UniProtKB/TrEMBL annotation:
Ranges of residues in domain Tetrahydrofolate dehydrogenase/cyclohydrolase catalytic: 7-122
Protein name per Swiss-Prot or TrEMBL: Tetrahydrofolate dehydrogenase cyclohydrolase
Catalytic activity entry: (6R)-5,10-methylene-5,6,7,8-tetrahydrofolate + NADP(+) = (6R)-5,10-methenyltetrahydrofolate + NADPH; (6R)-5,10-methenyltetrahydrofolate + H2O = (6R)-10-formyltetrahydrofolate + H(+)
Presence of keyword Nucleotide-binding: no
Gene Ontology biological process terms, A to Z: tetrahydrofolate interconversion
Purpose: Catalyzes the oxidation of 5,10-methylenetetrahydrofolate to 5,10-methenyltetrahydrofolate and then the hydrolysis of 5,10-methenyltetrahydrofolate to 10-formyltetrahydrofolate.
Source organism (scientific name): Chlorella sorokiniana
One cellular component term from this protein's GO annotations in UniProt: cytosol
Annotated family: Belongs to the tetrahydrofolate dehydrogenase/cyclohydrolase family.
Keywords: Hydrolase, Multifunctional enzyme, NADP, One-carbon metabolism, Oxidoreductase
Domain spans labelled Tetrahydrofolate dehydrogenase/cyclohydrolase NAD(P)-binding: 143-290
First and last residues shown, out of full length: 54 to 349 of 349
Superkingdom assignment: Eukaryota
Length: 296
């Protein structure tokens, strides 16, 4: 029997898009200008093309103008850097997103570091990550997926200050910034990774779990404290002959087991996933708001 309250990421993301649409209208009325996002895609990966298409469509829905540059797989690093430099200089662009992964011959770090921190809507620039880690500093942008996790917790009324949190995973794009965000909210955070002994025991003491390890259903029922809040970032395809496509998506948490003990929990799909794009749009609007206020 499921006891937990479901954290409906799809509905929350929908609310956020409505809020952003209204904010974009206010910006237009006040400054006569519209927020703009530039998306750079290198190569022909089908999954990347789908992500880019979805991001552009989401922009249009809230009134953000999307620009795009598609470069062939064979594009040189210099060509990609030139595209980034042009968008850095373009006052109608307030966010620049380089779709990852880049082809192997291109130095991903060098390209990401070239994005102006004022337009770093993915929040991956080391200066933005550094500010996130430091007391008394505020990053211009926070990475979208962990920002979405925190937004889900806040909008579900989960108290963070003084609570124990466990983050499973320490990647640059999810686990590490999620842990920093929780710490900024005065939670006491333990970061679990592939060499951590006793991951189960650490999680079982946590009031909040953010699971981002990329291992299907690793966080089982007895990893979850009674009354905990559970945010499942994982997206894993597992074989399922009874499903139409031959597979189904599961998270990094065993949902059925965890839901018997948690106070609230995100489903997969429909939890963190929809929040990632909503936070990208949030970052674009924030970037534009700052630029307009500064007279750019
Ligand atoms: P990475 O593979 O980059 O990182 C996984 C992390 O989990 C690593 O820090 C790794 O440890 C740790 N880990 C792996 N196995 C274990 C284990 N057995 N026990 C404890 N820790 C372990 O993944 P990402 O952070 O990019 O993504 C995590 C998950 O989130 C994936 O399922 C991905 O698909 C999903 N995702 C979802 C998004 C969304 O929008 N909802 C966006 C981005 C990702 P170590 O550092 O030691 O290797």
């Amino acid at each position: 029997a499921m006891a937990a309250k479901l954290i409906d990421g799809k509905a929350i993301a929908e609310d956020i898009r409505k809020e952003l649409k209204a904010e974009v209208e206010v910006l237009k009325a006040k400054y006569g200008k519209t927020p703009g996002l530039a998306v750079v895609l290198v190569g022909e990966r089908k999954d990347s093309q789908t992500y880019v298409r979805n991001k552009k469509k989401a922009c249009e829905e809230v009134g953000i103008v999307s620009y795009g540059t598609d470069l062939p797989e064979t594009a040189s690093e210099e060509e990609v850097l030139k595209v980034v430099a042009d968008y850095n200089a373009d006052p109608s662009v307030h966010g620049i997103l380089v779709q990852l992964p880049l082809p192997k011959h291109i130095d991903e770090q060098r390209v990401l570091d070239a994005i102006s921190i004022e337009k770093d809507v993915d929040g991956f620039h080391p200066l933005n990550i550094g500010a996130l880690a430091m007391r008394g500093r505020d990053p211009l942008f926070v990475p979208c997926t962990p920002k979405g996790c925190l937004e889900l917790l806040k909008r579900s009324g989960v108290q963070l200050s003084g609570k124990r949190a466990a983050v499973v995973g320490r990647s640059n794009i999810v686990g590490m910034p999620a842990a920093l965000l929780l710490q900024r909210e005065d939670a006491t955070v333990t970061v679990i990774h592939s060499r951590t002994p006793d991951a189960q025991r650490i999680c079982a003491e946590a009031d909040i779990i953010i699971a981002a390890c990329g291992k299907a259903e690793m966080v089982e029922g007895d990893w979850v404290k009674e009354g905990a809040a559970v945010i499942d970032v994982g997206i894993n395809a597992v074989d399922d002959p009874s499903a139409k496509r031959g597979y189904r998506l599961v998270g990094d948490v065993n949902f059925a087991q965890a839901a018997e003990r948690a106070e609230c929990i995100t489903p997969v799909p429909g939890g963190v996933g929809p929040m990632t794009i909503a936070m990208l749009l949030r970052n674009c609007v924030d970037g534009a708001t700052r630029a307009f206020a500064a007279g750019h």
